[in-house]
Amino acid sequence: MSTRSVTSHRILDGKAVAARLRAELAGEVAAMRQRGTHPTVAVLLVGDDPASQVYVRNKQRACGEVGIGFRLQRLPTAATETDVLAHIRELNADRTVHGILVQLPLPRGIREAACIQAVAPEKDVDGFHPLNVGLAAQGEDAFQPCTPLGVMRLLAETGIPVAGRHAVVVGRGAVGRPLADLLVRAHATVTICHSKTRDLPTLTRQADLLFACAGVPRLIRADMVQPGAVVVDVGIHRLTDGSLCGDVDFEALRGVAGCITPVPGGVGPMTVAMLLANTVRAALRAG
User: Fold this and answer.
1) d(Cα 200, Cα 203) in Å, to the nearest integer?
2) Residue 49's pLDDT is what?
3) Which domains does the chain have, with CATH numbers?
């Protein structure tokens, strides 16, 4: 079949799905608060990175919508790693805080790995702590990274089957690797591609489910996609004209992909929804 033979496509509206999930979480949080438990997340923001400030505001707004407590701790760009670790230790010891999120990236001179590892695993609602990563890889009950979790939930909520299908993940970083693991556990056959992959288009054209998380604007072109494939775009980039795009050439794929996520409004809202869900889960665990 020609790549021009598919003329209609379905938009996977992550914004709408996330709104539905937030409504469900709001009911759960209200019931928890009646029982005396107020789920609360603390966000540690170091420096004045503009993108980080936008992300934090989005998380704060989402928490307010569902009734989750939100604490923002700001540290100046000049803060040291010692300062950051001291704040994390305080939050670990605070029993009224159920989730801790260290907003990335951190300023130069502060090791992200050291800060992530300092967060108590039971409060690691980002799912980045090595203990949670290891437990998740073994199929155990553990917090998992919000973006891969959000991708899987989006597929489930929109009725897209995974089992038995060929999934190609383009990118092996903080999103690609855990996403590939989740897909394997959902019984997909998974191929992981990366910067050293030879003849990338040949592999991506084999995908029933194609996940773009390489961090390269518009990397996935129309000639790289099997007609009717499901395409999930995890990337987000701000271009010189101020517009946003993902790792997929969205307009070019409109007549090729069977289902596709938009940027923005696709995976991003699902990531935030999973952060909320992980915070509620942490509060339930804490009793």
Assistant:
1) 5
2) 87
3) 36-121 (3.40.50.10860), 146-268 (3.40.50.720)
Mean pLDDT across the stretch 251-273? 94
Alpha-carbon gap, residue 172 to 159, rounded angstroms: 26
At residue 89, the 3 state secondary structure works out as helix
Residue 279 contacts residue 68 (beta carbons within 8 Å): yes
Q: Do 27 and 65 touch, CB atoms closer than 8 A?
A: no
Q: How far apart are CA 206 and CA 218, in angstroms?
A: 19
- Are the beta carbons of 147 and 267 closer than 8 angstroms? yes
CB 142 within 8 A of CB 136: yes
Give catalytic residues, as residue numbers: 59, 103, 126
What is the rounded distance in angstroms from the CA atom of residue 100 to the CA atom of residue 126?
Answer: 8
**Of the candidates 55, 36, 33, the residue with the CA atom closest to the CA atom of residue 44:** 55
23-62 tens-digit pLDDT: 999 999 999 999 999 999 999 999 998 888 888 999 999 9
Q: What angle do CA 149, 116, 110 make, to 5 degrees?
A: 130
Q: How many other C-beta atoms are found inside a 10 Å radius of the C-beta of residue 39?
A: 26
Q: In Å, what is the CA distance from 94 to each residue of 41, 71, 99, 286?
A: 11, 12, 10, 12
Closest CA to 204 of 187, 226, 182, 188: 226
> Is the peptide bond between 130 and the residue preceding it cis, with omega within 30 degrees of 0?
no
Q: Do the Cβ atoms of 20 and 51 come closer than 8 Å?
A: no
| Measured CA angle at 193 (ends 184, 186), to 5 deg | 10
